[in-house]
Amino acid sequence: MDIKEIENLIKFVSSQKNVGEVEIEKKDFKLVIRKPNPTMVAAPQYIQATAVPTPAQLPAAPAAQAAPADDKKAPAAEVASNLVTIKSPMIGTFYRSASPDKPAFVNVGDEVKPGKAVCIIEAMKLFNEIESEVSGKIVKVLVDNASPVEYDQPLFLVEPN
User: Fold this and answer.
1) Has residue 48 been placed in a domain?
2) Domain encompassing residue 20
3) What's the burial of 119, exposed, middle or buried (CB within 10 Å: 0-12/13-18/19+)?
4) Could you say which of 9, 13, 57, 71 would form a disulfide bridge with 53 (CB–CB 3.0 to 4.6 Å)?
5) What's the distance, Cα to Cα, between the start and end of the chain in Å?
6) What are phi and psi of 77, to 5 degrees?
7) Per-residue confidence (pLDDT) for residue 62, from 0 to 100
């Protein structure tokens, strides 16, 4: 079976309302084409992701501006420097909950511990639970629900305990 035949099969399955799956098995290969079940999977929304730099990624301040003129800015910098970033271990689509009708795994202000699921990343129709590796409080969610994410992209900021 060549690539054109496979493409035609995919087009056929996607255009038919009453066909949800086609399976072809020949002596040297097996091909399964499935349509996603719309009741189980939320349709992904593709938006342009913007990178949010973590404090470690911010450029160093010039020496001339090392001493802040306003003391109110210093505590904010101290708080930001102790935050831990939970990053995406893969490329995929970020989901805050297990399904559209379920609550989010974590919200701002929630406490997390190592091993607690914080989100799901869908990659190639596989839903992977992402677990926290730190103990602390969620300070900020950096990605919108149903957004595409890149490998090593920051997802959450956590204030460690």
Assistant:
1) no
2) 3-34
3) buried
4) 57
5) 57
6) -65, -40
7) 52
pLDDT on residue 79: 45
For residues 66 and 91, the answer to whether their CB atoms sit within 8 Å is no
For 34, list phi and psi in degrees, rounded to 5. Answer: -125, 145
Nearest to 39 by CA among 55, 20, 25: 20
Q: What average pLDDT does the structure give for the chain?
A: 78
Mean pLDDT of 111-120: 94
Does residue 82 share a domain with residue 18? no
Contact at 8 Å (CB) between 113 and 135? yes
Return the higher-pLDDT residue of 62 and 123: 123
Evaluate whether residue 60 is within a structural domain.
no
In contact, 49 and 123? CB cutoff 8 Å: no
The pLDDT tens digits for 72-86 are 444 444 446 789 999
pLDDT of the residue at 87: 94
Could you tell me the pTM of the whole model?
Answer: 0.51
What sign does the CA torsion over 33, 35, 41, 47 have? positive
Residue 51 domain-assigned? no
Which distant-in-sequence residues (6+ apart) come within 8 Å of 152 by Cβ?
Answer: 87, 88
CATH no. for residue 143?
A: 2.40.50.100
